[in-house]
């Protein structure tokens, strides 16, 4: 065998730690992290989340301390979730300007103005039935929910949220939110949907963290987990480009 074999030796670029550093493609630091924060109203103690050891629900009264702590260690962004004690059929606390969604955004921004605040935008933590929108019989009414999601987005943005983060799986939600924000002269508020997801048991721990009281399942609005390719169409629909 010739000494020229093999002609390509990628291992040359891996022979020392400094060499590997030069050629590495991915950089990762604190700026890449978004800390999810679960904020509970009406309580004074931190709450354990059995399915996520080490993650705690934070009492609203201690949120400022938590945001300060994140800022101090160099975290640039938080994603906020409310654990409501004011649930109703439609989640109307989310579009109350003194409701939990608004108060959380306000506390975050007042405490650390430079912190990027992403406000989870959905209804399942605020509805008595635990579904992500307006429930008619056993089905979530997509278009009625779009009206409410626009209201919630405006309230969160006015309170200081930099990014509206819809997690409801409603078709056309991004377009509905964009219109509502623009109509409210909030054109600089961004939208980051993270709602193209499967109706899967993997969200169980998250539902527990959010204090969801879900009755039934989300199979009529989240994706069938046996249909991977529908994710492309689904993410396009969520953007509102397909009505
Ligand atoms: Zn939801």
UniProtKB/TrEMBL annotation:
Keywords from the UniProt entry: Heme biosynthesis, Lyase, Porphyrin biosynthesis
SMART domains in the cross-refs: ALAD (SM01004)
Top-level lineage group: Bacteria
Keyword Lyase: yes
Pathway it works in: Porphyrin-containing compound metabolism; protoporphyrin-IX biosynthesis; coproporphyrinogen-III from 5-aminolevulinate: step 1/4
Annotated protein name in UniProt: Delta-aminolevulinic acid dehydratase
GO molecular function terms listed in the Swiss-Prot or TrEMBL record: porphobilinogen synthase activity
Biological source species: Paraburkholderia hospita
């Amino acid at each position: 065998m010739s000494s020229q074999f093999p002609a390509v030796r990628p291992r040359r670029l891996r022979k020392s730690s400094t060499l590997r550093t030069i050629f590495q493609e991915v950089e990762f630091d604190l700026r890449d992290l978004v800390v999810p924060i679960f904020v509970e109203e009406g309580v004074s103690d931190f709450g354990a989340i059995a399915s996520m050891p080490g993650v705690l629900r934070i009492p609203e009264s201690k949120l400022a301390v938590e945001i300060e702590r994140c800022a101090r260690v160099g975290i640039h962004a938080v994603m906020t979730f409310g654990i409501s004690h004011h649930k109703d059929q439609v989640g109307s606390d989310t579009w109350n300007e003194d409701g939990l969604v608004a108060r959380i955004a306000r506390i975050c921004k007042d405490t650390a103005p430079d912190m990027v605040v992403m406000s989870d935008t959905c209804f399942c933590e605020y509805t008595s039935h635990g579904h992500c929108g307006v429930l008619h019989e056993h089905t979530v009414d997509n278009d009625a929910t779009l009206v409410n999601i626009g209201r919630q987005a405006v309230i969160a943005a006015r309170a200081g949220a930099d990014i509206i983060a819809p997690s409801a799986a409603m078709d056309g939600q991004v377009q509905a939110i964009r219109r509502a924000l623009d109509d409210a002269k909030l054109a600089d508020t961004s939208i980051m949907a993270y709602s193209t997801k499967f109706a899967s048991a993997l969200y169980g721990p998250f539902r527990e963290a959010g204090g969801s009281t879900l009755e039934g399942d989300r199979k009529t609005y989240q994706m069938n987990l046996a249909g991977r390719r529908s994710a492309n169409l689904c993410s396009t629909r969520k953007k509102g480009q397909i009505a």
